[in-house]
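cron nightly-structures :: item 1 of 1
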Amino acid sequence: MRIGWVFAGNNMDIVYEGGGSYGIAETTFCAEAKACLGALTWALAKGFKRIAMYTDCAALITQLNSKADSNIANIWTLQGIKTKGEQF
């Protein structure tokens, strides 16, 4: 699975592009979650202090806002997104 992301400046010009190969995604939801986690990991490594993240995956937003347990295959990825997201 190859994933990618784009970081844009205030005037929406492309500042950075990133991506990579992250193994196999069992579902499209899993691919979206891994892309978000990869982007957060990358932004932290590049020293970003604030970001706004956009996704077209409504199910991902629902799961991140939910207190209920997710599919076992997604729990670690969702927890990683929450943990890294709190660092901004």
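cron nightly-structures :: done
The CA atoms of residues 5 and 18 lie 5 Å apart.
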